[in-house]
Every structure is written in structure tokens, then in C-alpha cells.
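Supplementary Methods. Inverse-folding protocol.

Structures were first reduced to a C-alpha cell string of length 440. This string, shown here, constituted the complete conditioning input.
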């Protein structure tokens, strides 16, 4: 209620400052609404933490001579980010409707003819637009929506104050429609839509919706930063990716997300570490191009490694393929194409029934990985060769009155190609099914 009173007080101040002419030979009131200050032209203060976001690095310059230089967003940059958070769908982003314009013009003409009370009664027709049972609503809704009704009620409230009223009736109607609308839309609103609803809530003094909007916006912003960190790979990130992540951090600081405000906060420190690794890697690339190996910065986090999970064909069981081990590998160095090395064992023992017989599976062999890894832009490619040791007792069929029959698998060397995408699969000779697991 206090916020609603404050909103009305602002309208009183704005409309009260409009000049009126007391010369009886001329009009006392303006001829049209366009001559009266529109409250929607006043910006809304969202309470953003501009100063903190201004200190966030926005970009980096890399040179062999000066190293890595960070440039901050500054006040202008932080305000620019804040300005991009709304979608332009708030009530005040709409012009007043032709229907409201006509009512206001009639009211001003009547007031200038000397009957302010009759003029105010003309304005009351706008309220019928919000009643489903009214013929005016049918006419109004042909080219309008609930936001349009709210927009018009706000404008008519200003006209009512100009004519000696308090505008409360129109503000109440706008607030009622807005509260219902916001409660129905907010649960599915994205960040920009949420901010537009927040803007309307602040203008209308709706504390309940304002609090809900702030909670939702902060949740979206925090989750957006966490998702950006999850997707960010400092070992392949380009400067555009770095700028995008820093933009997410600055947005979180605008909203004063506790985990992202300063050094020591979890998300802030994680962004800082990821950005530093990415910038060190880009500096190393510049140093290599300049043949300055003495300037290279060690980046252990960017030593690509992983495992290749081996699944083997086992047609006599319910599971056609079974996992028999993971073979670790390492990409050696950061100059591409780089060598890939790995070695490990596959192992499995088990017995499956087959009618009156049984089949014993016995897998125990070494697997060696060799090959290369290459990068083209952000795309990586593994060109590998896997060498499987022999399986002399791959499957042994044992029946009560027969000699055992053993199926063997010889040594096998086979190429395998994987894009640098986690969980990519590859078939080898119809026997082995391979799955790539990346460590970063």
C-alpha cells in the first residue's frame, strides 16, 4: 500500500508541475494528452549494483611485450549490460490506445468548456474496458491486451489528477489486472520477460510481485552463470568465449548474487581461474608464433586425457555387450597434432546357462592405445590405433556328456576415430564397442 501511495505521489508531482493558463480567454487545460508529461517516460531504478559490475574485467589484450592486460567494464559498460536485461514488453513500452486517446481528448475538451466533473466522468469509461461483461471491453480488446489496459489506466490516472482527482481508482484497477497477469506469467518467464514484469511491479508499487520477480531473476542469473562455467573449456576457449563468461559474471554482480561478488566467493573464484587458464593458453599460442619458447606458461589443466571404455560382444548372454574395462590415455603436449599414448587391461569372468550346458566367459588381455590428436579451431579429432591382446579362452562351452569347446579371439589391431566429444562411440570389427570418456 505504501508503494502504491508513493506511485500516486509521483504522479501528483509530475502532473502538478504542468503549467495551466488562468486567462479566461484561453483554454485552462492542454488540448491533448501529448502536451502533458507522461510518467512512463521516467526510468525505473532496479537497484542494480552498477559499481561492483563496473570493476569486472570485460576483455583482455595479449601481447608478447606487455603480457596479458585486462580491461574493466567501467560504469558505462555495466550500465549497457543492465540496459540489455529488459525485453521491451513492459506496460510502459506500449503507446496509449486510440480508445484511451479519444477518451482523454473528450475529457480535456469538456474540462476546457468549464465542466471538470463531467470531464472526470468521461475518463471513468476506461474502467469498463476491464470488465468482461461490458460492451466496451469487447470493443477495446479487439486490438489490445491486459498490458494495454494497464498502460491506459496509468495515463488516465495522470489525467484524473490534472482535473483535480487523485487517480486512485485507475491505479487500483491497473494494479489488480497486473497482479493477476504477473502471477500467471512469471513462472515461465525468461530473464528479460521477468525484468519487464519487475519494471511494471515497481511502477505500480506491487511489492508482492516485485519480490517474486527479484527472486526469479536472481535464480535465472545464477543458474545461467553456473551453466556457462559448465560449458566453458579454457583449453579451447577463444576471446569471444572469454568475453561471454565475463559478461555472465558482471550480470551476476549487477544482481548482487552472493557467490559471485568478489574474491573468495565460489562462483567468482571459479570464473577467475577458468579465465586465467584460457588467457595463459592464448598467450602461449602468441609466444609460439613469435618463437619465444622462453615465455611459455605451464598449463597443467589443459593436458587432455581420458579413458576409452571397452565393451565386448557376448552373444550368449542377455547383455549382448558387456563392459570389460577402461583404458586410460594421455595427449602428450599442446602442439598439434599431438601424440596420444595409453595402456591398460580388460578383464571379465562369468558363467551363463545355455539349456543343459553352460558357457564360461574369461577375458583377460592388455590393450595399448597409440595415435594422434589434432585441433582445428574449437574442433578436436582423435586418430587412434588400439591393439588388443589375444583371448585364448574367450568363451568355453561345457556340457555334461561332451568335451569342452573353447572359442578364442586372436590379437587384433584396429583404427578408431573419435571427435573430441564426450561419450562418442566406435565399433571395432563387430567384437569391441568403444566409448570415449574425456577428463575435461
Amino acid at each position: 500500500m505504501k508503494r502504491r501511495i508513493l506511485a500516486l505521489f509521483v504522479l501528483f508531482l509530475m502532473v502538478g508541475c504542468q503549467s495551466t493558463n488562468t486567462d479566461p480567454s484561453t483554454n485552462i487545460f492542454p488540448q491533448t494528452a501529448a502536451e502533458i508529461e507522461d510518467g512512463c517516460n521516467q526510468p525505473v531504478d532496479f537497484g542494480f549494483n552498477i559499481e561492483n559490475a563496473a570493476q569486472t574485467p570485460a576483455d583482455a589484450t595479449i601481447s608478447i611485450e606487455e603480457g596479458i592486460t585486462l580491461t574493466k567494464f567501467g560504469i558505462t559498460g555495466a550500465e549497457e549490460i543492465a540496459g540489455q536485461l529488459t525485453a521491451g514488453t513492459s506496460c510502459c513500452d506500449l503507446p496509449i490506445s486510440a480508445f484511451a486517446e479519444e477518451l482523454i481528448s473528450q475529457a480535456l475538451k469538456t474540462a476546457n468548456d468549464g465542466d471538470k466533473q463531467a470531464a472526470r466522468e468521461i475518463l471513468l469509461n476506461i474502467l469498463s474496458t476491464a470488465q468482461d461483461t461490458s460492451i466496451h471491453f469487447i470493443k477495446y480488446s479487439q486490438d489490445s491486451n491486459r498490458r494495454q489496459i494497464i498502460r491506459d489506466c496509468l495515463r488516465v490516472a495522470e489525467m484524473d489528477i490534472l482535473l483535480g482527482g487523485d487517480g486512485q481508482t485507475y491505479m487500483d484497477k491497473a494494479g489488480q489486472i497486473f497482479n493477476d497477469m504477473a502471477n500467471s506469467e512469471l513462472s515461465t518467464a525468461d530473464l528479460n520477460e521477468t525484468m519487464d514484469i519487475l519494471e511494471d511491479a515497481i511502477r505500480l508499487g506491487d511489492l508482492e510481485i516485485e519480490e517474486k520477480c527479484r527472486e526469479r531473476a536472481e535464480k535465472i542469473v545464477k543458474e545461467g552463470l553456473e551453466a556457462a562455467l559448465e560449458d566453458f573449456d579454457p583449453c579451447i576457449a577463444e576471446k569471444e568465449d572469454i568475453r561471454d563468461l565475463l559478461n555472465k559474471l558482471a550480470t551476476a554482480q549487477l544482481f548482487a548474487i552472493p557467490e559471485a561478488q568478489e574474491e573468495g566467493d565460489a562462483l567468482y573464484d571459479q570464473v577467475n581461474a577458468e579465465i586465467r587458464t584460457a588467457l595463459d593458453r592464448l598467450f602461449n599460442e602468441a609466444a609460439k608464433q613469435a618463437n619465444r619458447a622462453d615465455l611459455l606458461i605451464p598449463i597443467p589443466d589443459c593436458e587432455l586425457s581420458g579413458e576409452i571404455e571397452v565393451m565386448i560382444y557376448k552373444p550368449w548372454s542377455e547383455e549382448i555387450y558387456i563392459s570389460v574395462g577402461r583404458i586410460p590415455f594421455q595427449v602428450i603436449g599442446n602442439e598439434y597434432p599431438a601424440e596420444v599414448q595409453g595402456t591398460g587391461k580388460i578383464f571379465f569372468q562369468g558363467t551363463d546357462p545355455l539349456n543343459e550346458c553352460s558357457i564360461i566367459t574369461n577375458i583377460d588381455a592388455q590393450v595399448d592405445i597409440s595415435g594422434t590428436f589434432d585441433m582445428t579451431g574449437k574442433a578436436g579429432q582423435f586418430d587412434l590405433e588400439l591393439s588388443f591382446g589375444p583371448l585364448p579362452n574367450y568363451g568355453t562351452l561345457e556340457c555334461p556328456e561332451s568335451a569342452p569347446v573353447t572359442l578364442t579371439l586372436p590379437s587384433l589391431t584396429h583404427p578408431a576415430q573419435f571427435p573430441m566429444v564426450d561419450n562418442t562411440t566406435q565399433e571395432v570389427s563387430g567384437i569391441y564397442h568403444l566409448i570415449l570418456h574425456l577428463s575435461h
